[in-house]
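Lab meeting prep.
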Amino acid sequence: MAVMAKEYYADVESVYKDPEDYELAGRGNAYIRIDAEAKVTGSVVYTDDVDLPGTWYCKLVHSPYAHALIKSIDFTDALKVPGVKATLTGKDFPEGHNLGNPEAFKELADKEPLCRKKVRMAGDEVAAICATTEEAATEAAALVKVEYEPLEPVLDPFYSMQPDAPAIHYPGTGNLSIFTTMKAGEPDRVFGEAYYTDKHYYKTQEMVHAAIEPHRAIAKYENGEYTIWTTTQGAYVSRYWIAWGLGVPESQVHLIKPMIGGGFGGKLDVFAHELCPCKFAQMTGHPVKCILKRDEVFMCTRTRHPISFEIESAFIKEGKLLAKRCKHILDGGAYGGSGIAANTLSLICATFPYKVENIDMTARRPYTNHPASGAMRGYSACQVHFAHEIHMDEVANSLGIDPLKLRRDNEITPYYTGPTGLEFTSCKFDECLTAVADAIDWEHRWRYPLGSGEGVGLSGSGFMSGTGFPVLVTPHYCSASTIVRLNREGYAVVFTGANDIGQGCDTVMTMIVAEELGLRMDEVKCVQSDTTTTPWDAGSFGSRVTFLGGNACHRAVGDAKFKLLSHWAEEWGCKPSDITMKDHRVFIKGDPEKNISYNEALFGYEEKNFGRCVVGVGSFAHEGDKDIYVKNVGNYATAYSFSASAAKVTVDKETGQVSLDDFAFGHDCGRPLNIRAVEGQIEGSVLLGFGFTCYEECQYSSEGRHLNPSFRDYRFPTALDMPNIKTFICSEYDPEGPLGAKEAGEGSTAPVGSAIGNAINYATGLTLRELPITPERLWRALRENEKTGKTEFGAEDLRQKFDTMPPLPERD
């Protein structure tokens, strides 16, 4: 009979502190991050700070075409540049060893380390140069002559799926990289009987992550082993694909993640700038560094998926949601990688935060010749909740119901199971809605006259606390593992493979260990993300680190604690759970004879155990149905967060300029482990959501060339555009989370755009269904409204495109 993890860790859990005894976690604590001093003083080591003796430099050669055949590559002039030492093309890598993201879908890996015969996006890497200086490498790369045979670029995802569209990867597949379906209940019958039905179309744009630190890597080759320092969000996943791309065993690749200057999903995949330095290091015997320029980051890493939506809903007259149909078309760009998961996630996000028993949903992710779309903070949730929450307000207006009431009448409640098997645990969505509505003065402000130039908007959302999918094929489907060592000198060390990319998960792990052992946080050392030193972890994505990595860490320190306390329980004639660890002491409450220091406790254990130190090991795996990723039915995560937001905007109707005046955000993150960190995540999410709604957009020529690949031309909001923000942490101890916590990183991005969009719609009296709502786009809509009385704008071309889509292929 299978043993569940909870049974296996029962002894460990017996020595956990009671939730009410936690001192560092929750209770308004806002402690300092463990990397704060290094960041403030500038002593922190990023990838570019890794300087090895004799380092040479790598530069990549990029395609100017979005779609073309490679006829020849000529290095003659490049090799004449003083300092040039080596060159690479696709033929220098093993054929068929394409790069992807999830090992379980290895057959979908479609990105060559360097393109051999064909390029599929402007910016595709076709060759690489190694030189003694960065300047020489840059000069030589510009002199490489590549002969191309241009092909028709496919830039519209709807055209891409048509039978006569040019094949981007595989002929006869309709250019689909993946498609997903979810169906439950009797949606067709319910639509036929409903009082109210509708069908509307929405569209969101392509964005970039805009992390301050560009992608970069440095590699050396010694004693048959590649060591690489790189900007990655998943050390073990990157090691797997680097080893595969090089054609060597994983045991020959040692990957170290230095500090990361922002990731947001853009550093999940493996790229040419990581494999080429490895190859050059082996060829030359020198360490080799590759640093991408900003335009290279824009063109050849990853972007956020543009998504087109067709949404239909069915309601009773009083506002109960009966059924939903929707179709999502994700522009996948040229490659798959981390982007293929976004397809399924887009449908999962569409099933909550409201109860609906009858659904018929499909999502398709076709290839195009745009830059490859991948994971970006929110992982489809921002786009999905924009469309579906704008839709909720349209329903409310059509039924004459207060949008807040409509949401409350349909909201998910604790321990609800959704139609596809999502099992919700704790849920404070109603409290989130109440908090933001009160803060924005919803009762009075939402009654502003339409088109007055001022408006308020509401939005709700939900998100998973970590995806159960471990990316690589792992024993027991394990997503995270941690080791904790207790030292008799008076401290502890936590070895975690979790990847801190700026969100502060190293601080969370440190706090969990300190909390259970009764130590100060400066008495816990954190070693992170080194594939030779730290244990397995899937990486930072899907808001998984605190929940999955935190649970693994909690179990690891519990394992160590149980071993230590079992020894002293035998010495003192009690049970391990009778012993308390607090303030660097180990003792039984009320018994002064049984009270020793942490150091003494460890020394005594090692004395009795032949000098062996106390080491605890913990892991965490989602115990749900592992086939959910194939069947799309089951529980995707162990817990789910909920959010609500409210925005107050002022629109200058003469210029189309939007001012975000006030913003209220309520987040159900379980028990907050660090109040300041949660508030910081929320405030950053508001700025990101404002950029998503009103500023950011990748623009392309008709040939697929990126027109604004720089911070000079790509518009995003700055600190000067931040509104007044009120944050409400609607916390409730979640029984599945580490110390009761749930996620707080990505779910907090999801409802921002739609709250702002709904507020703009009320302020203007228009219905705007396409992002971004830039001043120019809004000005044109306002002028058109004055001339013709038209009120609905955006996504006007989508009805015909959805109606003429080819049918979905049959599943194998």
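Slide two material, second protein:
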Amino acid sequence: MAKCIPMIITNTGILVKDRDSDEFRAFNMPGLESTPNIPFYHQFASKIAEDQHYFKEFVKSIYGKKLAKYVLAIIVPDDTSTLESIFINEFFVNSGACKAVAQMTMGQALSKDYTRYISVSKSARNVILQYINNNEVRAVKMYDETNYDEKVIKEDAKRLHIDVEYSGVPVFVNNINMNMDDFFDMGTVITPKDFMDKISAIDVEKI
């Protein structure tokens, strides 16, 4: 099995698992500014080589110089678009900080005990419902983070997919960004510690 470096892209930054513990260390790129509805990593495109160098040096400070043996397991927000996913993969695989990358949404990482479930999360742009079946996203629905009705979202979760309509599935509320108070009554709340514990033990072969 390939050696794995778990990494989480949150609403505001990047967390990389420490090699010698289950703790995550924050990678902070100097000079980034917050822009409404635009993920922070979009700014990497304006100075790719410089940002890739900083990231590689950061990972080297944790994992040493022999980074070519590692696969970077990247956990992304649930509303990451196809183009954003491609950019993320290309940016990190070409940074020299790993030999390859694997990527999955946060919702796909919420449970190992259930093969079918609903996840609900909130990014910097959207509230996102996902139906997960056997580690695959089978259905997704998004709502503007600045203008949503939590009652509508809770009702939509009950019929997000035909599987859900005919047999109830558990709901997991992803509170990694500490912004899900409106949805705590929907199901099991995953705290930041819970989430990081799950990612610490992630199996890259399943991504």
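Talking points for slide two:
The helical segments are 48-63, 82-93, 150-157, 162-166, 192-200.
The CA atoms of residues 13 and 41 lie 8 Å apart.
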